[in-house]
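Service request form, structural biology core

Requester: graduate student, group of Dr. S.
Request type: structure prediction, single chain
Budget code: on file
Notes: please return the result as structure tokens.

Sequence provided:
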Amino acid sequence: EVQLVESGGGLVQPGGSLRLSCVASGFSFRAAHMNWARQAPGKGLEWISTIFSTGYTNYADSVKGRFTISRDNARRTVFLQLNSLKIEATAMYSCGHGRDRGQGTQVTVSS
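Core staff response, request fulfilled:
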């Protein structure tokens, strides 16, 4: 059974930073392409970033230069570093692999 468990969300002021984590199980993590996406209230799921099994990464234009995706294969974990956060970044952030997504972790950016 595939499991994806996110953590690290919280309340942060504009301009602040957070580091999200996603621990995966139930599949070959080392060979997996992993992604992060977010869903703001009243909006659809927005893709943010993907990290391939090779370590290659790509990002949505809206977060390029401010968010960084990384992975630790030994810990079966994918990370998302969020810097220079804006109020519009408030959303539920989830990691995914194929058709599977985790429950997500809430990020709220507010002064």
